[in-house]
Amino acid sequence: MPWADGVMRHLPYFCRGQVVRGFGRGSKQLGIPTANFPEQVVDNLPADVSTGIYYGWASVGSGDVHKMVVSIGWNPYYKNTKKSMETHIMHTFKEDFYGEILNVAIVGYLRPEKNFDSLESLISAIQGDIEEAKKRLDLPEHLKLKEDSFFRVPKGKIMNGH
Ligand SMILES: Cc1cc2nc3c(=O)[nH]c(=O)nc-3n(C[C@H](O)[C@H](O)[C@H](O)COP(=O)(O)O)c2cc1C
Ligand SMILES: Nc1ncnc2c1ncn2[C@@H]1O[C@H](COP(=O)(O)OP(=O)(O)O)[C@@H](O)[C@H]1O
Ligand SMILES: [Mg+2]
Description:
It contains five helices and six strands, in the order αβαβαββββαα. It has helices at about 1-10, 25-30, 40-45, 120-135, 140-145, and strands at about 15-20, 35, 50-60, 65-75, 85-90, 100-110. The protein has a six-stranded antiparallel β-sheet. The longest helix has 18 residues, at about 120-135. The chain is globular and about 45 Å long. Flavin mononucleotide binds next to α2, β4, β5 and α4. Keywords: ATP-binding, Flavoprotein, FMN, Kinase, Metal-binding, Nucleotide-binding, Transferase, Zinc. One of its GO terms (molecular function) is ATP binding. Its cofactor is Zn(2+).
């Protein structure tokens, strides 16, 4: 598969950025909130990291590291005109964290982005991604990245970029 070379060469891929507002659809329409990165972070992705759905680890500020799924692309179901990178963290947070720094380690690829003929089928695809990601992240090769020094962000220190 030609995409596999391009994608795998860059994994794990580490990045951080401030959480910005998206279209507000994640929580409201899908029941699955996604923390969106600014355009600049999306533009800095290596050119041959293809659009699609990935999984990995994420933390907010200097908080705990949790499992995550991330969608990179144009959300064909919503026909976005700008490429976005959105992370759903498998953790229940007490409140929103807009403006905070999200740290992300992408460790594996799940599937390409797809269009769906109903909101229900988009939601069940995302729920399937979440279950698959949870399983794969329990593999020892992935678990070790949870402890990566990338996530040891000093408390109180604002970090941006790489
Ligand atoms: C794991 C995951 C998989 C996704 N897969 C698709 C997809 O295949 N097609 C699509 O159009 N959008 C997909 N999305 C993106 C959602 O449409 C998007 O998160 C939603 O529109 C929320 O956007 P917002 O942050 O602007 O509110 C996916 C999102 C996640 C978290
Ligand atoms: N588990 C979670 N994963 C991702 N974001 C979360 C989570 N819990 C709360 N949030 C908050 O919800 C926001 C995303 O909700 P969403 O409906 O996708 O709005 P937006 O379109 O502004 O991205 C995030 O920016 C974050 O502040
Ligand atoms: Mg979002």
